[in-house]
Specification:
Elements lengths: L5 H22 L5 E5 L6 H17 L3 E5 L6 H8 L7 E6 H10 L7 H4 E16 L1 H6 L4 H6 L4 E5 L5 H13 L3 E5 L3 H10 L4 E5 L2 H8 L4 E5 L25 E9 L4 H15 L2 H10 L9 H22 L5
Parallel strand pairs: 1-2, 1-3, 5-6, 5-7
Antiparallel strand pairs: 3-9, 4-7, 4-8, 4-9
Length: 326
């Protein structure tokens, strides 16, 4: 008899659960929200996150506190976000590496991006740039023939394994038949300095202010951008596609996600707040000034489809190029 009464009792509880969910959404947020950024302070991702945090905080009525947790190609901070309590008080900045690439690149991950995180919205997208020591650039530039004729692979630096610049270099080598050897750094600064010093002849980096400063000062030569069209910041620099790899395009990106099981009404409010802020003219202006950053299509559904497409694309590249990270 008791078992026969379980189902009706459960059904009667459903409206109460719905009321509780709505009550949570109305009360949320009642304290500051932690935004885990899996990159170090001072970089472009950190800057963009802080700018958006300030403006979203104004809309939701509570501070959003940036918590930088770099390490392991972004896996450390992303894992912390994935395993945080799904109560609406932790979100995480997602980038191409830990969200779409590292599952294919690393032997194992402590989290599953699709299973453990839920997308809220994309926030920014940007191209990468091929940079070279001026002496090397004067001799070779992005000459595909010269790169193919090399007797040994040409070293190129990147800000780290699984970053969009790393992937751009690997995709270029695979698409162009070029002989390249990846040298990962812990961020852009050390790699840029080594290319200036001539320790590494070339680097692929995000098109961001530090890289642009090296180019404009003459310490580095920009030899190709990974967007389909030339960028307004460097209108005289050809695209990689123009250099002989038709259709070549690599775009880095950032987005915001939350732990799986975060209440749907809270996710909706976060999505609405971020989407509204990303439409502000001053935000778009800062994005453009910070690098060739665009505000991509926003919203959780688009971000979910985008992650799926990016994961499939880079899985093929990692497998075909046999890229491995210990």
């Amino acid at each position: 008899m008791k078992r026969r009464n379980l189902l009706p009792a459960a059904l009667l509880a459903l409206p109460a659960l719905g009321l509780a969910s709505r009550a949570l959404a109305q009360a949320w947020p009642i304290k500051p929200i932690r935004w885990i950024v899996p990159q170090p302070p001072g970089g472009t991702a950190d800057f963009i996150a802080r700018m958006l945090a300030e403006k979203v905080s104004e809309r939701i009525g509570q501070p959003i506190v940036i918590d930088n947790k770099p390490g392991a190609g972004g896996n450390l901070g992303t894992d912390l976000g994935a395993k945080a309590a799904p109560d609406g008080y932790t979100i995480v900045l997602g980038t191409i590496g830990p969200i779409a690439v590292n599952a294919s690149l690393f032997a194992s991950l402590p989290f599953d991006p699709e299973r453990d995180l839920v997308p809220i919205t994309l926030t920014a997208s940007y191209p990468c740039i091929f940079l070279a020591n001026p002496e090397y650039a004067a001799k070779h530039g992005l000459d595909l023939g010269a790169l193919r004729r090399l007797s040994s692979p040409l070293s190129y630096a990147s800000p780290g394994n699984g970053t969009s610049p790393h992937l751009a270099g690997e995709l270029f080598a695979m698409s162009a038949g070029a002989k390249l050897s990846h040298v990962p750094y812990k961020g852009s600064a050390a790699g840029l300095n080594d290319v200036v010093a001539g320790h590494v002849p070339m680097m692929v980096d995000a098109l961001q202010p530090t890289a642009l400063a090296f180019v404009r000062s003459g310490r580095l030569k920009a030899i190709g951008v990974t967007s389909l069209q030339r960028t307004p910041q460097l209108p005289d620099v050809p695209t990689v596609a123009e250099s002989g790899v038709p259709g070549f395009e690599v775009t880095g990106w950032m987005g915001v996600l939350a732990p799986r099981a975060t209440p749907a009404p809270v996710l909706t409010r976060l999505e609405e707040a971020f989407t509204a802020v990303l439409k502000l003219p001053e935000v778009k202006t800062v994005m453009a000034e910070k690098g060739a950053m665009d505000v991509p299509p926003t919203g959780s559904e688009h971000f979910r489809r985008f992650i799926r497409e990016e994961t499939g694309k880079w899985r093929k590249v990692v497998k075909t190029a046999n890229i491995k990270v210990e």
